[in-house]
Each structure stands twice: as C-alpha cells, then as structure tokens.
Amino acid sequence: MQTTIYYNEEDAYLIKQVDSKSQRERKSRSSVILSVLEEYFESEKRLGEILVDLGVISHSELAKGLELQKTRFTDKRSWSLRKRSNARWSFKAVIAKRLGEADSDGSEES
C-alpha cells in the first residue's frame, strides 16, 4: 500500500522530528510515522482490547482471562505492593551492578 503525505512549511518541524527518530532507530520514515500513529490510537486501549484487535486472542478468551484474574488475585493491594517492591529491588540491583562496572573499569564516579 502506498500513501502520500502533503505538508507545508509549518509541518517541517514534525518531519524533521520523524527523520531524527528514523535515523536513531534505523527505521524508514514511513515505519516511524506508522509506529507513532499506532501509539496514538492504541494508547487509550487496555491490553486485552489490543490483543483482541490484533487477533491474538478472542473475546471469549479475554473474558475467561479477566474472570480468572478476578478469582485468583482478589487481594489486589498486597499483590500490587509485592510487585512494586520487587521492581524497586530489581532497579536497585541494576544500578548497583552498573556502578560496580564503572568502578571496576577505572571510570570516574559522579
């Protein structure tokens, strides 16, 4: 499929942004534009809606998964706190590892 995009001088800034992003990510201009559009249209959706739209799961599978989630994770607060705590410790481990690598290779500490 082919699409033509017309823009004027006022839009040149956006095209420069697309070109910069395409160079950083080593993608084509059209690929970057499509990924930005996808982010825009999918940002308001929940994960289940996106999976159904992509055809990965059916509506009935989504309903089953949501019901299972309700029955298995009734104590949402403690699960959320546990998840957040684990993420915090993982983040600390990554930072500590990176700092340790910087120390061991003779880099200056900031």
Instruction: Assign a percent range to the helix content.
Output: over 70%
Number of helices: 5
Largest sheet: none
The Rg value, from CA coordinates, equals 22 Å
Strand content: under 5%
Q: From N to C, what is the helix and strand string? A: HHHHH
Q: What is the β-strand count?
A: 0
Residue-averaged pLDDT: 76
Sum up the overall morphology in one term.
flat
Low-confidence stretches: 102-110
Oligomer: single chain
Category by helix and strand content: mainly alpha
State the distance separating the first and last CA atoms.
51 Å
Any overview of this molecule?
By secondary structure, the protein is mainly α. The chain has helices spanning 12-25, 29-42, 47-54, 59-72, 76-104. Helix 1 packs across helix 2 (29-42). It is flat. The chain starts with 11 loop residues before the first helix and ends in a 6-residue tail after the last helix.
